[in-house]
Amino acid sequence: MTAPNTPNITHELMCGATAGVAVDLGLYPLDTLKTRLQSKQGFRAAGGFRNLYRGMSSVAIGSAPGSAIFFVSYRQAQKMGNNSILSDILAACFGEMCACLVRVPTELLKQRIQASNGKLKLSSAIREIRQTNGFFGFYRGFTSTIVREIPFAFIEYPLWEAMKRSFHQKMDRHASPIEGAAFGSLAGLTAAALTTPLDVAKTRIMLNRATYTPRILETLFEIHREGGVRALFSGIVPRMCWMSIGGFVFFGAYETAKYTLSLPIEF
């Protein structure tokens, strides 16, 4: 079986959007549990196991464009490199920075609603942010998201690419979509475990409603003072499960869409 042709930008947009929607909507309850475990008010006060799909509308709006922008930026940046691990790392970091322009407002609204114990709706969350901080309030936590996403991308995407290259060298064929999904699952699991403290800090910053935006190091130290190392890794189990299953779904959907779109049309 021959490998699929290299997709163009339109194909990358479609593949990225498909992958993003598949994982964000399919695994939303795990993300809600993780957010509530990381919230300062505590798991039960944030909603516990109730209303696990609360806030999904914001994800439905931003998931497809965010993932599409990432993969277009990532693949275009890769083409400028030399097919090495370093070029994968730089391309992944660039892709995440571009995607965060869409991802941060979506993530902010989603987490505010997830941790509101069912008291906040999407329209109310938008109004509250706009009245408190104006337009730039929707980008609260932008820096902390970038600080989390870059190390995550630094680990996940180069590891995924490296496993696929190694597979190709050993097996003398390209990985199938299901094999690519398995590599993505392992890469996501590894990256999730190592970057959990940054994710906890990002969650705390986004849930903070004060006019002053806390800084990352300040937030990390505060979390450590409250509960030590254990607090820094709050929500690690659902996060690892989410990223492991999510990596499988995300990369599987991406590889499947890429392969399908690259096949010649048969009549």
UniProtKB/TrEMBL annotation:
The keyword Transmembrane applies. One of its GO terms (cellular component) is membrane. Solcar repeats lie at residues 7-80, 83-166, 175-260. It is a multi-pass membrane protein. PROSITE patterns: SOLCAR (PS50920). It comes from the Eukaryota. The keyword NAD does not apply. Gene3D superfamilies: Mitochondrial carrier domain. InterPro entries: MCP_dom_sf, MCP_transmembrane. It is found in: Membrane. Its main location: membrane. Keywords: Membrane, Repeat, Transmembrane, Transmembrane helix, Transport. Signal peptide: none annotated. PANTHER family: S-ADENOSYLMETHIONINE MITOCHONDRIAL CARRIER PROTEIN. Belongs to the mitochondrial carrier (TC 2.A.29) family. This is Uncharacterized protein. It comes from Mesorhabditis belari.
